[in-house]
Amino acid sequence: MQKRNNGKSPRLLGLLLVVIAIAIFFNVTALFMIPYIIGWQGQKLLAIGDSFFRPPSRVTKRSFEASAARRRELNVLRDRDEGDDAFCESMRGGVAPGSTADRAMVHVLVSNSGHFPFLHNVILSLIRSGLDWRPVVLAIGSNVCPMIENQTELVGKVVCMPYLERLLLQLARDEPESMQQIKKENVVPNHGDNVTKIFEVIDSTFYGWGAVEHKFLINAKLYALRDVLNCGFDAFVTDTDVGFRRDPRPYFDVGDGPEGDVLAQNDTNPTSYPLNINSGFMYWRWTDSNLRLVNDIITVPPFWYIDQARVNLIMLERGTPHMILDEYKFPNGHMFLNHFDELDDDEVIAFHANYNDRQGQKEDMLRKMGLWYLR
Fold it and tell me: Which of 165, 251, 280, 345 gives 20 to 30 Å between its CA and that of 365?
């Protein structure tokens, strides 16, 4: 006997078809939305994971191109400065093997023309020692690079880059109060807030310890350090009142532990700088943690803190692993003044003529160490 059709089956079938259609619609929509979801949130999640969970980078192919690719990767971790890629490209000629053969290093010096005799001398010490890298000079002022070009022996041995404009842009962004201090406390008479006039004088003068212009010049090393690291290279940062006798890089190779990410000359002054880090002679490996550290060193304390105080303070507060170089192989002015007879020329790798702020005294120290090469 045939069952009577009471009309329910078509209605149920219709409802089933509607449910299936809705399910298909949401599944198809989800498939199309996944790429956009990943593009919007996924990169943020990758950035967070990269920042907090990935170990410090160790690059096996340390070519300039590999570093450029890494810089692009790090864009998710920080804001980009206008002109970063062009700046890093200009640094290409100064890239050299770092603490190990698979690392790339840039030796950077920040100088104005007032300190040119010491800049000239430290470059000559590298040449006389047979060291094969070309230091990168970041010039505070328009006179430094032409002065280098006028020295026949330095031609082709240095990468000189104008730096003042880039530095001022970063100062205005990261420490806007710094420019107000320079305008207010500098020694340039009747400047009328004319920054160009102020820096023309800063460029040509040798400043002693304590002057606001001196603080500006030495704090510029922190920006140089950050810029080199942001370009994807290990940063070897030194003052200009340094003389080299041998290659320091073997002493920067201390293994893969985090304590080797920051190495520095012993300042032999724990009363003022509790970690004894001398910021005028440091080697920083290129790692994500170091990028964050130097950015905080620049942006957290007030500008009035000099670079060395900033480095020691922040690293002490955070318990940052680091290593201090042997004070007999890398002596400073304190060792010269108090332990000169104990210093062995055959053991000294590099000497730093600090612990004084007078041009003649620094030159005398370097002469007595056999590291003054100007006639």
Answer: 251
pLDDT in tens, 301-331: 665 678 999 999 999 999 999 999 999 999 9
Other C-beta atoms within 10 Å of 146: how many?
Answer: 11
Nearest to 158 by CA among 168, 166, 150, 169: 150
Q: Please report whether residue 52 resides in a domain.
A: no
Share of the chain above pLDDT 70, in %: 72
In a domain, 25, yes or no: no
Helix axes 164-174, 176-185, angle to 10 degrees: 110
User: For residue 13, what pLDDT band results from cuts at 50, 70 and 90?
Assistant: low
Residue with tokens 């790339």: 104
Rounded to an integer, the average pLDDT of 168-177 is 86
Q: Give Cα separations from 367 to 95, 130, 218 (angstroms).
A: 30, 19, 23
Question: Residue 235: is it exposed, middle or buried by C-beta count within 10 angstroms (0-12/13-18/19+)?
Answer: buried
In a domain, 15, yes or no: no
pLDDT of residue 180: 75
Range of the domain at 183: 80-368
